[in-house]
Write a sequence for this structure.
């Protein structure tokens, strides 16, 4: 079992990262502020004007530590990593399956099943905790619609139908997302999903969480020997990590949506932690990003029992486990891909 390692997030502008023996030295204004052994890291995530020395990038590639570069506000720019590990036959199987319409539909259907089941779990939990009868009614109606979609997905179907059902289920889920916001309702209002750029505080929070979750899932794919760019639900597009986006779908409710709601409802994050640009884009500022990353890391360290393996592990290990289960499916060790489903 792979040990759960930490991710080093670097947000201070002008920071320089360099290799210091077998460790990463974090230097700000030529002063070493932190030193972290490479053996303790699964990844390094840099926001904005953060530079890395060539020797450090080489050491990270050798150690299997992915270095991700984001804009200051959380848009993924690039990921530096070493040679993909694992058997080349695994990746060749992945490519063949991605070109097979029925195989692609089967993989996409399993992933969408996991995503919709987890969205339903989030709404069911919210309905149990609600006291407003009208809100409970609305939530239960969407739960019923998601249950119907889940039943429909149990049978074989083509990829276009899978995508259509996924799109409708996502629209239903987000149609009641505002009911899950219980505090600061005057400033944190969700009407519809907006991206590139996000147009309100809730969307800014979701977009940032999805970006850092994508970096984790992408790293898990590469560490397993999979090609993170070749997906099944998300088809090939230059610069898009299709498989990472696929495997991320079932994890969004647990490692993004719930965290966003927790931060808002506990009033850990406030409107002052955002910046509104002249274009109307709403983005997290530095204090907001720090709050989100602290909560994200804390969530990753929580312990759960994996529903398929029936083993206890930290939540941060789940992307790695799912990538390995998907690799086992490609190799023929499993009859189908078991998506991660909340209990």
């Amino acid at each position: 079992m792979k040990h759960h390692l930490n991710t080093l997030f670097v947000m201070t502008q002008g920071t320089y990262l360099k290799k210091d023996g077998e460790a990463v030295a974090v230097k700000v204004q030529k002063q070493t502020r932190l030193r972290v052994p490479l053996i303790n890291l699964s990844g390094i995530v840099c926001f904005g004007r953060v530079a890395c020395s060539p020797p450090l990038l080489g050491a990270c590639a050798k150690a299997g530590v992915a270095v991700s570069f984001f804009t200051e506000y959380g848009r993924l720019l690039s990921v530096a990593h070493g040679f993909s590990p694992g058997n080349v036959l695994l990746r060749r199987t992945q490519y063949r399956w991605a070109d097979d319409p029925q195989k692609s539909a089967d993989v996409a259907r399993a992933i969408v099943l996991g995503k919709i089941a987890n969205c339903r779990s989030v709404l069911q939990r919210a309905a149990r905790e609600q006291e407003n009868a009208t809100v409970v009614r609305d939530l239960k109606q969407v739960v019923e619609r998601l249950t119907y979609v889940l039943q429909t997905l149990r049978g074989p179907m083509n990829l276009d139908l899978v995508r259509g059902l996924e799109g409708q289920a996502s629209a239903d889920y987000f149609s009641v997302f505002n009911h899950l916001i219980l505090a600061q309702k005057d400033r944190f209002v969700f009407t519809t999903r907006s991206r590139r750029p996000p147009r309100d505080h809730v969307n800014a929070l979701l977009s940032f969480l999805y970006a850092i979750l994508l970096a984790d899932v992408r790293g898990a794919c590469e560490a397993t020997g999979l090609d993170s760019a070749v997906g099944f639900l998300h088809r090939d597009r230059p610069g898009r990590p299709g498989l990472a986006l696929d495997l991320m779908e079932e994890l969004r409710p647990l490692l993004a949506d719930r965290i966003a709601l927790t931060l808002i409802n506990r009033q850990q994050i406030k409107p002052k932690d955002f910046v509104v640009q002249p274009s109307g884009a709403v983005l997290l500022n530095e204090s907001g990003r720090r709050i989100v990353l602290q909560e994200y890391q804390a969530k990753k360290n929580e312990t759960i029992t994996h529903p398929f393996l029936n083993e206890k592990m930290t939540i941060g290990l789940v992307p790695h486990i799912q990538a390995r289960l998907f690799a086992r499916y490609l190799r023929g060790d499993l009859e189908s891909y078991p998506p991660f489903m909340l209990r």
Q: What stands out?
A: Residues 101-129 form the longest helix (29 residues). The mean pLDDT is 88. The radius of gyration is 20 Å.
